[in-house]
Structure formats: C-alpha cells, structure tokens
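Incident log, support desk, overnight shift.

02:14 A customer reports that sequence design results differ from what the structure should imply. Their input is reproduced verbatim below. On-call engineer (initials T.W.) acknowledged and began investigating.
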C-alpha cells in the first residue's frame, strides 16, 4: 500500500473516530430531535389536479417542485417539524383532486391547521397554460393533521 493511501485511510479513520466520540458524549447520542416522539408520524401530501390531464412526467416534475417548496418553507419557518419528518422516514403520499376549486379549499383548510400549504403554478413552457395551479404540497407535518385535510382524497 502506498504511503499516500495509508495517510488517506488513517485520516478517514481519525475523522470517523472523532465524530463517533463526539456523538457518544452527547446527551442525545443518536442526534434525534427531542420533540419527535417514536410513535408520532409525519408526512407530506402532494395533491395533483386531475382536470389538467398532465402526463406522468409532468406530474412527477410538478410534485418535485411542490416537495422542494414545502421543504424550503419549513426549513426557515419550522425546522423542528422538518427534522421530525426527516427522522421518521420522510413519508410522502400522492393524491388526486378534481380541480382548482377543490385545491383552493384544501389549501385553506391546511393553513387553518397551521400546516405548510404551497401550491405550484406552471410556467407554461410545455403542456399546461401559464399560471395554472398544478400541485398542492401540504406538510410535512403531523400525519393526523395532514389526514384531517386530505383524508377523503383518493391515491393518485
């Protein structure tokens, strides 16, 4: 083994040891958010408008936009909830709604429960008219609250 390889391996082992040592002296060795309870569930709902007749690829792209919008919002407004969601599997569910009116009702209901609710408006470069609301992201948040808003919707 060359000396540069052994130095690299040694540095990697030392770095790993440092981080393991730091974590084991912590009062929270797993790094879990203390507000996250093992029995709590968190999820993100992605509600897709079916009246727009989007292709599978378009739906995937719009759901990705909604996921990132919700993530960015919670990163600044409520990082504790975001950590809980990250630490409990990052559950996501794709659901369908009939039209923009239903989407607006869902968004209003989510906001009344203090859930993040971000709607995505299409840029209009491909299949959908500019400014059309395509997907609504609700959460991440406590699954029981997200389900209060989305519980009657069908899976995509």
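02:41 Re-run completed on a clean worker. Output:
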């Amino acid at each position: 083994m060359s000396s540069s390889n052994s130095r690299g391996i040694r540095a990697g082992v030392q770095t790993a040891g440092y981080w393991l040592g730091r974590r084991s002296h912590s009062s929270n060795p797993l790094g879990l958010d203390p507000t996250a309870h093992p029995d709590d569930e968190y999820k993100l709902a992605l509600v897709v408008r079916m009246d727009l007749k989007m292709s599978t690829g378009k739906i995937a792209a719009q759901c990705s936009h909604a996921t990132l919008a919700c993530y960015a919002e919670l990163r600044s407004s409520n990082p504790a909830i975001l950590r809980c969601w990250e630490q409990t599997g990052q559950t996501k569910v794709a659901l369908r709604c009939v039209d923009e009116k239903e989407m607006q009702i869902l968004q209003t209901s989510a906001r009344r429960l203090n859930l993040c609710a971000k709607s995505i408006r299409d840029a209009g470069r491909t299949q959908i008219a500019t400014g059309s609301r395509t997907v609504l992201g609700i959460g991440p948040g406590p699954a029981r609250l997200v389900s209060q808003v989305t519980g009657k919707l069908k899976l995509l």
